[in-house]
Amino acid sequence: MKQNADELLALIFNYITKIAAIHDPEKLVVEVAKMGRDIVKADRCSVWILDHENNILWTKVAHGVDFIRIPSNSGIVGEVIAKAEAKIINDVYADPHFNRSVDDETGYKTETMMVLPIHNSAGEVVGAMQVINKIGEGGFTQEDLQHLLLASTYVAESIESSLLLEEIDATQRELVYIMGVTGESRSKETGNHVKRVAEYSRLLAQLYGLSEKECNVLKDASPMHDLGKIAIPDAVLNKPGRFDEDERRIMDTHAELGYTILKGSERTLLKAAAIVAYQHHEKYNGTGYPNQLKGEDIHIYGRITAIADVFDALGSDRVYKKAWNDEKIFNLFREEQGEHFDPKLIDLFFENIEQFLSIRETFKDRYDG
Amino acid sequence: MKQNADELLALIFNYITKIAAIHDPEKLVVEVAKMGRDIVKADRCSVWILDHENNILWTKVAHGVDFIRIPSNSGIVGEVIAKAEAKIINDVYADPHFNRSVDDETGYKTETMMVLPIHNSAGEVVGAMQVINKIGEGGFTQEDLQHLLLASTYVAESIESSLLLEEIDATQRELVYIMGVTGESRSKETGNHVKRVAEYSRLLAQLYGLSEKECNVLKDASPMHDLGKIAIPDAVLNKPGRFDEDERRIMDTHAELGYTILKGSERTLLKAAAIVAYQHHEKYNGTGYPNQLKGEDIHIYGRITAIADVFDALGSDRVYKKAWNDEKIFNLFREEQGEHFDPKLIDLFFENIEQFLSIRETFKDRYDG
């Protein structure tokens, strides 16, 4: 029976809409496999991605086994990729390339199969689609193959786009982290300080009820809070003892300096980082610096980072002081509720203290190298 | 006449394949408009994107007027977006919302029109598709509308993805630039130094025949060449006079320090930046630092950045010296061909000297604030 054309069109648009919104390559592979299965009405579909560097094929399936890797030349899929030629096999057990050990192990019976190479728009084979067990009478047809071939280059482009986005996204996170560490490195703080401040900030943002997007932006922006320290002279930055008045004034310029470095940007992340750098030393009662902002005139990002930064600084050993114990930290936080810190955020902090301690434990400083 | 279903399917897959490979939102809008036009067989199609922040609709069209912005409530498109309801108008001049002034100006005669809102998967209206002048007998049909409605959520997701990618990509470029400037700022060099080094490096990479991808990676990586200076003490970094032997040794550690900051990453960009930081002071004849690498043992990224960095440094005023004139720079480059610098790159440099001078002119330092 010929599939209704409008139905097929609706099905395809439904899938490609979902696919366009997925940025994680592994989730994408699962969704594309479902699309392949439904386009040709098969029982199963796997999308295999060729990893040239490691000579493997990988796939994810929604159900059952999670993540599968096989040598890139194995079985019928390997053959299709090597020859760059599609194959319809409506009597699988008769095919010499078929490896029946998986069927024997799982009890699943493979009867019909169609495998086609996935080309990207440059014409390179980047993987394969494999559909198994056509539903209904007869096996896979040339029309099924035609439909999947139409889809296959689209699949390649989608997957390449998602891999690109993943790479850029991961690079951005690392750049932000390296910038944070770079800012801290001159003052001999550790890379884990910026990680913890990032995690505490996101948690406070979530508890405060900011949108998921804002929570993630703040997480990535908060490591840059001390970026301005880059421009503070060594003699001040690393002074072991107490600052005199001049030194204190110089040190305090780091908030405005960080803001100056970042303020020119129109990018969401860097605008947030500029706010965090500028306001993380403001105090709720208006006695902070550099602008003596008060209460909710301090941006929520600034109020949150202030708590995250102080909580972490007090709980860590520094060149000039030992870490405080929790009792002492908590007493200070209660005293400073409504003074240094936003009272609502301090309530949220104490109500969810276990989560903060768990972050501290996960990202604790290690001194073994 | 009913459109052939397989033909329509092939057309759609052809377009969505192209669309999946386009990451620039403006180019995407043009391609999506072509898809819309071909799906319903219209003479023209525009895809309008709603910019909430500025209350405008924007579009790009392939031919004729380039970039168009209109108030978000104007005309039939504005009406469709406000009501979130599609509209088929097969007698356009009878519609009270139609503004015929554009037709009067351009001489183009609008006869039939169909406009539908574009929803994203969260159900929000993010724009509209507008097709004009159905080809052949009769106007637009419910079937045309149905086909475009199927496509519209896909369009929304694609455009949102491309806007996201553009934001992340632009953020990455700015982060890299800020990191470069941060590294330079302590040694009082200018932001334009890192921009020029980036552009010279990309140009040399292109002339040398590296792939487009590598050229762009090197462009983004090269600004980080002096990142390690972040960890050099002020007393050395900003010394006005000549270094003594100890100071020189401390200063030279910046190459290895930069490498240490960056080397942990698996990301393409940061791996390239690590190479650049490590090797930009190696010399072709093996007398550079830190590892006295020789000839092609120095990575091409290192050999390129060495030339870009020195060319720019010699041509710029610094605290401790005036800029050299071009004759003096060119003489040094000829003397150092095969000594400090890769001889092949020096040939390419002189063969294309106009392009290098044009970059220098475009990104020259300005002292007017």
Give Rg of chain A in angstroms.
Answer: 28 Å
Which pair has the most extensive contact? Answer: A-B, 55 and 55 residues
**Structural class assignment of chain A:** alpha+beta
Q: How many β-strand stretches of chain A?
A: 6
Uncertain spans of chain A, ≥5 residues at pLDDT below 50? none
Oligomeric state of the chains present here: homodimer
Number of helices of chain A: 14
Q: Could you explain the architecture of this structure?
A:
The structure is a homodimer of 369-residue chains. Chain A is built from 14 helices and six strands. With 369 residues, chain A is of the alpha+beta class. The first copy, chain A, has a six-stranded antiparallel beta sheet, sandwiched between helices. In chain A, strand 2 and strand 3 form a beta hairpin. In chain A, helix 2 packs antiparallel against helix 5. Chain A starts with a helix and ends in a 7-residue tail after the last helix. Chains A and B meet through helix 1, helix 5 and helix 10 of A and helix 1, helix 5 and helix 10 of B.
